Amino acid sequence: MGIADTIALGQYLPRASALHRLDPRAKIVAAVGWAVVLFFVPAFAGLGLAAAGVMALLILGRIPLGYALRGLRPLVLLIALSAFLNAFFAPDGGPEVLRLGPLIATEGGLRNAAFVGLRLVLLVALASLLTFTTSPVELTDGLERLLRPLRRVGVPAHELAMMMTIALRFIPTLLEETDRIMKAQIARGADFDSGGMVRRLRALIPLLVPLLVSAFRRSEDLALAMEARCYRGGAGRTRMHELRWRAADLAALAVAAAAAAGLLRVR
């Protein structure tokens, strides 16, 4: 299995589901709102309910659970590092549970580690769920519409939306390119698996130059393709499908807001 096969963030899975048919603005606002609320949820019970809500949305969007979980693999190191720091350096005390030399993990530290780890998983799941159910074109249109009021103060709403969408969409593309470069170097005798962590990190350095060259080449090809299609930015741009709020979109936002308020009240 290649690197790109383990990354779910940035992928779009077309499905005939109610979640896919929602207005992208409603999904963006709900996802951002829930992400903010997760930082203020005070108890494990709240995060548990949030996890149940994400599971329900995956079922509603017809997204395979195994596919969604597979996208969390690259975050194992980040989650483990966060858990370690919270377990051994968190200010919360309590009885000692584990000692590693001068480092002491307390009951409160381990509780914080589990809490922060679950929060990170839920944040990534929300971002992945947004890209699973929203095509890049819809995501760009939704972001541009939401940022449109900022144009009055000189913020280039269309350009910002386009850059964010392209960056998000190119995550799996660059990972596929990394996978191809790694396989080509392994075929020439490179070793990325043996040795300690420092040696493995050093072995990845030769990947950076060809990956940067490939990224610049792809960006140049994209720019040329956009110019060939007479792309001139957001001024006077028309769309095949205009975004319109529907009753289902407003109902989805109301349900998301009510659920977020309920998470904050769970103790």
Question: What's the structural blueprint in terms of helices and strands?
Answer:
Blueprint: H1 18-21, H2 24-38, H3 44-60, H4 65-70, H5 76-89, E1 96-100, E2 103-106, H6 107-133, H7 136-147, H8 157-187, H9 197-203, H10 205-228, H11 247-265
Helix pairs in contact: 2-6, 2-7, 2-11, 3-6, 3-11, 5-6, 7-8, 8-10
Descriptors:
267 residues; mainly alpha
What percentage of the residues does DSSP assign to strands (E)? under 5%
Question: pLDDT average, as an integer?
Answer: 81
Number of continuous helical runs = 11
Q: Looking at the structure, what is the overall shape?
A: globular
Rg (C-alpha, Å): 22 Å
Commentary on this structure:
With about 270 residues, the chain is mostly helical. The protein folds into two domains: about 1-135 and about 240-265, no CATH class; about 160-235, no CATH class. Helix content is about 65%, strand content about 5%. It is built from eleven helices and two strands; from the N terminus they run αααααββαααααα. It has helices at about 20, 25-40, 45-60, 65-70, 75-90, 105-135, 135-145, 155-185, 195-205, 205-230, 245-265, and strands spanning about 95-100, 105. The chain has a two-stranded antiparallel sheet. α2 (about 25-40) packs parallel to α11 (about 245-265), α3 (about 45-60) runs antiparallel to α11 (about 245-265) and α5 runs antiparallel to α6 (about 105-135). The longest helix is centred in the middle third of the chain and has 31 residues, at about 155-185. It is globular. The two termini are about 40 Å apart. The model has no long low-confidence stretch (mean pLDDT about 80).
